[in-house]
Structure formats: structure tokens, C-alpha cells
Amino acid sequence: MRTTINHHNERLPGRRGGPNYLNFRIFAILTAMAAAIVAVLMAYGSASAQEACNPECQAPSDGPTVTKAKPANHATGFDRDANITATFSQRMDKDTLNRKTVRLKEVLSDCSIDAELTIPCTWISTVPAKVSYDASTRKVKLDPAKRLAKNQWYEATIEGTVTNSAGQEMSERYIWYFQTRSS
User: Fold this and answer.
1) DSSP H or E segment with residue 26
2) Span 66-180: which CATH code?
3) In whole numbers, what is the pLDDT of the chain averaged over residues?
């Protein structure tokens, strides 16, 4: 007959797989699960703080960042009827994403845009656009009020004052440029 040792280093009579062993295994699994739950709650403070986690569910110790922009920075041939989007690393406070913090500007056609964007551009005007946010995809969308101009450079900006759902601001303003197609 085998003996089983429980979590207190006490010998339990019976063979492996018997009722005492099964009770011990269930207890060990439940104890491990409880410890994991406590660790998560201690790390994140609460369920609402956990919701602000980035996709890897790390505590949002740093502010949010833009992980993807559409069109990509320096893209050319962008569809004149398409929406402009940006995806964040964390869930955002939708109230901070508005026409003042997320903007689209038409750039002067003679503006020199190079790979490093070392020459500052001058804007013609801000393009009226509806700003919306989808929390499930973490995407902000700019929907221009009218069709974008042909073969025109645009600057999209997200101000660094936008915040995640935990109230943390982006570390800096995010800017990207793109050019529409010629037809």
C-alpha cells in the first residue's frame, strides 16, 4: 500500500488515486487558483484597473501608445473615401478622444515631406471629421465630412493629452502623414 503526502507533509494512508489522494489534488488545485486570483487583484488593484490593461494584460504603468495607424505613416495612394484610424495599446477614455484631440489637416502641396520629416509643414486647414472610438478594438476613427482631395498630403494628429481608461496620458503627441491617390 502506498502513502500520499499532503500539503502539510503529513502521510495519508491509501493508494495513489484513492479518495484521500483525490481530495488532496482538488484542494491543491483550488489553493493554487485562489493564490493566482489574489496575485492578480494585488497587481491590478481592482477589476476596473485590470480592464485598462494592454493586450498582454500588463498593469498600465506607462501611458497608452498608438500601435498601428491606417494609413501608415508616409503612405501614398490612400483611398480618398476611406476613414483614418489609429489603434491604441490600451483601452482609452472615449471622452478624451474628440475633435480637439484627434485631428486631420490638409498640408500645403509644396510642403517638403521626407522620410525623417525634418522640414516642418504648413497646413491649409483642419479637415472637418467625425471622431469615434470602439473600445472592443481600441481604435479611434476619423470620418472626414467630405471626400479627401486628389493627390493631397494630410497630417493626422492625436494629442498627448488623450488618456487611457485609468486616466494616464500618452507620453507625447502622435503624428503621421499620408497622401491620397490621384484619382
Assistant:
1) helix 19-44
2) 2.60.40.1220
3) 78
Mean pLDDT of 72-97: 96
Residues with Cβ within 8 Å of residue 151, at least 6 apart in sequence: 179, 180, 181, 182
C-alpha cell at 114: 521626407
- Say if CB 165 and CB 52 are below 8 A apart: yes
Instruction: Please state the domain extents for the chain.
Output: 3-44, 66-180
Q: Is 161 helix (H, G, I), strand (E, B) or coil?
A: coil
The CB density around residue 16, as the number of other CB atoms within 10 Å, is: 10
| Dihedral sign for Cα atoms in the order 156, 142, 87, 43 | positive
Q: Give residue-wise pLDDT tens across range 161-173.
A: 999 999 999 999 9
3-state SS string for 29-46: HHHHHHHHHHHHHHHHCC
Compare 133 and 122 and report the one with higher pLDDT.
Answer: 133
Q: What pLDDT score does 159 carry?
A: 97
